[in-house]
Task: structure prediction
Amino acid sequence: MKKIYIIGVGLIGGSLVLDIKKGNPNVTIYGVDNNNKHLSKALNLKIIDKVSTMSTVNEANLVILAVPVDASVKLLPQLLDAISDDALVVDVGSTKQDICKVVENHPKRRNFLAMHPIAGTEFSGPEAAHLGLFKNKTNIICEVEKTGIKLQEKALELFTSIGMRMRYMNPKAHDKHIAYVSHLSHISSFMLGKTVIEKEKNERDVFDMAGSGFASTVRLAKSSPEMWTPIFKQNKINVIETLEEYILNLTVFKKKMQNDDFKGIFNDMENTNRIKIILKGIE
Amino acid sequence: MKKIYIIGVGLIGGSLVLDIKKGNPNVTIYGVDNNNKHLSKALNLKIIDKVSTMSTVNEANLVILAVPVDASVKLLPQLLDAISDDALVVDVGSTKQDICKVVENHPKRRNFLAMHPIAGTEFSGPEAAHLGLFKNKTNIICEVEKTGIKLQEKALELFTSIGMRMRYMNPKAHDKHIAYVSHLSHISSFMLGKTVIEKEKNERDVFDMAGSGFASTVRLAKSSPEMWTPIFKQNKINVIETLEEYILNLTVFKKKMQNDDFKGIFNDMENTNRIKIILKGIE
Result:
């Protein structure tokens, strides 16, 4: 593996190639991005070695597709058309059904591995990229059987070497589960931020009275709309389902308060305290 | 100031006396708690110097009331009855209307200062107490004019010395604002945890797919139901108002998704990104 192309030099793509480069100092990282400022920054920050374009992607041994999920779905078939027969393309998107669907009949389907590294922060762009982001993180791989054996092995070795543990899942199950543990969290956080901002016209009040609890709960409301809008679009049905259940739970909680059923509210909170056990190992 | 009584040796009370003791090594800290295990732990952890009871509170120079807010409302009048004429009682509860109301006509009202230090973690009990919790945190003080001038000065000096900045507010405004920036966050987090736990019968799936974003958003769902149920009860009207607005925002978001109004969703998220500026300085 000598030439790695990274399409999209943001938080995830940038962090991936930083880790890969550390363990494989002889590879050359080629950066492709439609944002020239990001390319310059990535070059200055030594995330990439060279600025490149899609037109030379046929030279790549590995292509990492790390752009918003609507762009991924458009670019992936073109990438597979262009790459050499023994190259591997991986994507890192937060939705997996549409991307798997768009190449299901592609003659080079075996050159593609669909994955979702469960890692990130609320920041974006190459300045947010950093070494070690993927250490002890889960990498969900979908339809692994559709990827060529040797390319599977290559990917497994590479992503294990940067500290990830692999987990295999079909795209439908991935998109359903991730709606609960990731997509819904982002909406609950964005709408919490919206509710408080709307109410508190005087921002100084918010600033003075908000503590670390609010900061933690609203952290994801800093996330990039460019990245998240296409995720919600692609995972629309699952996300709406999670939203309906969340709204129902909130409405029941509100009704319990209105009915002075504070025993019920106590029990709900006590049962939910089980999240302590579930979260151990994530934080 | 020689004798400080701490009623409730949990996270907030324990952390307060740790900080106070550090700056005032000659004071003796007397711990009162109806949980004997907490008292033993607090003694072992050197949070308190002596175990005591309410019956000797007349000897105290300062009494810090740090119990759940329903217990505070019951205990405060008894404490004011019992203390000496030049002693100060402060409470640290997350609601301020009921506590101020219950002593508004008490003959020793001037010996009480109502305050709410905006600090804490999702943990509870004396083991959660730690030095430095209040550094650079806001301490909201209500009805300061009803506290005797010398006792005001004493409190200001003491709480400034442990790193807090004071802010003055009436109890009604406090309870309304804090519902938005603290109480609602707790409910959004508890209901997020509930929604995900209910859906994911197989906890292993949650664990494997959840990342740091979920962990952050659901962190407050680890909070103590013993502490939070009485807060929601006392601040019922304000909390229901915030819940209604939150549920409405979530419902509108869901409808936008159903109508494929992803431009609207993008705009909502982009506008809410302003939270970045608001949060600077809190985290």
Summary: Chain B is about 50% helix and 15% strand. The CA atoms of residues 68 and 227 of chain B lie 5 Å apart. The first strand of chain B starts at residue 3 and ends at 7. The two ends of chain B are 33 Å apart (CA to CA).
